[in-house]
Amino acid sequence: MIVLAKIVDREAFIEGYGKPAGALLARFGGRYVLRGPGISLLEGHWGEGASAVISEWPDMATLNAFWTSPEYAEVKKAREGVADCRVWAIEAPRIS
Questions:
Q1: C-alpha atoms less than 13 angstroms from C-alpha of 86 in its C-beta half-sphere
Q2: Which sign does the torsion angle of CA 27, 23, 65, 39 carry?
């Protein structure tokens, strides 16, 4: 899963959303591959200064179980008005 987020209040985002979402992600079997602020936009019209998060999941079913869970629905409310997010779920073979 790839998330790009323009965050207007970083502290509120991290405390209200980031920490509980991270704990829930781990509980559902996901793991962070990358978490980084300050995207430099090379092409396109959205994302300059945004933050990026890439997480890895055992499979799409596990990711979907997380994404559609009542627990995540509750946590996700904390980013309303604090971040404008773009989220992609990508199923791809592991590259070795």
A1: 7
A2: negative
Length of the chain: 96
Distance CA 17, CA 29 (A): 18
Amino acid at 34: L
Contacts 24+ apart (CB under 8 A), 54-58: 54/1, 54/2, 54/3, 55/1, 55/3, 55/25, 55/30, 55/31, 56/30, 56/31, 56/32, 57/1, 57/29, 57/30, 58/29
In this prediction, residue 2 has a pLDDT band, given cuts at 50, 70 and 90, of: very high
72-86 pLDDT per residue, tens: 999 999 999 999 999
Give the residue from 65, 40, 35, 63 showing the smallest Cα distance to 50.
Answer: 40
The closest of 68, 76, 84, 83 to 28, measured between CA atoms, is 68
